Amino acid sequence: MNSIEDTRLFLRSLNLPPGDLYDLPTSTKRFPDGAQYRIEIPSTEGPTCLHAVIEEAERLGVTIHRVSQGSGVLMLTDDEIDEMASLASAKGMEVSLFARPNASWDTSAMSLASAGGVVSPRARGQDQLIYCLEDIKRAADHGIRSVLLADEGVLWVAAKMRSGGELPADMQFKMSVMMASANPASIRLMQDLGADTYNIPTDLTLPQIASIRAAVDIPLDIYVEVPDDVGGFVRLYEIPELIRIASPVYIKLGLRNAPNIYPVGKHLESVAVLMSRERVRRAKIAVDIIQRYYPDAVQSAAGAKGLAVPVPRRKP
């Protein structure tokens, strides 16, 4: 009779861990510059928010390596994308813009049903797949070199476009937390499809995260303060262990007790800016914890190798 050990052995033959790694092995994997961790500020929804992030980071002496945005490329004007690209490029900072729309942004009834939230981030139908790809192409045309995706089909086609020269060769695909793949095999599949970085679900345990790191080489993005609509908890004291077992890792500062304001516009701009400033303050708290409990952890410098820093376009 087959035993569970047979299954574990088969997983080993695929270079997958035999289970969750409760011994929490130290990761020897690194970013291209040799660093273990970088800092990400999410929900940086436009140039006004990015100005606030940069100003607050300089005031607090914090290096922000990446900002990400959730409202979507389609919700930014050409001038706004250009301004974000220019601001971030000057600071050696990556900007990742979400490729929209998806099911929750159109007429999908299932995405609003009690059991239908799983379809919300998906590209719904071939036309919506095309719209997401158009968002990616537009971002690239404006010098953005990182896009945020939440659908494996969009990822697969976008990776084909990148390898085929339809997108810049240095374009990076960052997988959203809404993708929700939560085990080593699933995230290995995302890596094989072309993902350059993966935002794991917010509530995974340290042994589960260690098992994912054993299976994949791409950076993991990990919320250490989690927005309410995806868990709403704070795990700041775990940051040193997360860096040790999961490097290379983006430490990602969400914000509890804050509204989901996607899509952002002028009517919500003041709230979005204040939230951006507070996320940077949270990043300062996170960095202080790292320096206190894991002072040997290596952080990337601004503009480090492997960051998808924008390449601002030259206007005619």
Write a structural description.
This protein has helices at 4-13, 47-60, 78-91, 125-141, 152-163, 184-193, 206-215, 239-246, 269-293, and strands spanning 37-41, 66-68, 94-98, 146-149, 172-175, 197-199, 220-225, 249-253. An 8-stranded parallel beta barrel has the order 1-2-3-4-5-6-7-8, surrounded by 6 helices. It has one domain (39-293): Alpha-Beta Barrel (TIM Barrel), CATH 3.20.20. The model has no long low-confidence stretch (mean pLDDT 96). Helix 7 packs parallel to helix 8 (239-246). The chain is of the alpha/beta class. The chain is globular, with a radius of gyration of 19 Å. Strand 6, helix 7 and strand 7 (220-225) form a beta-alpha-beta unit.
Secondary structural class: alpha/beta
Strand order of the biggest β-sheet: 1-2-3-4-5-6-7-8
Number of helices: 9
As residue ranges, the low-confidence spans are none
What string gives the helices and strands in order?
Answer: HEHEHEHEHEHEHEHEH
Average pLDDT number: 96
The portion of residues assigned to helices is 25-40%
Strand tally, please?
8
Q: What composes the largest sheet? A: 8 strands, parallel, barrel
Compute the CA-based radius of gyration: 19 Å
Q: What's the domain count?
A: 1
Q: Specify the CATH architecture.
A: Alpha-Beta Barrel
CATH class: Alpha Beta
> How large a portion of the residues is in β-strands, by DSSP E?
5-15%
Q: Globular, elongated, flat, extended or rod-shaped: what is the shape?
A: globular
CATH homology group: Aldolase class I
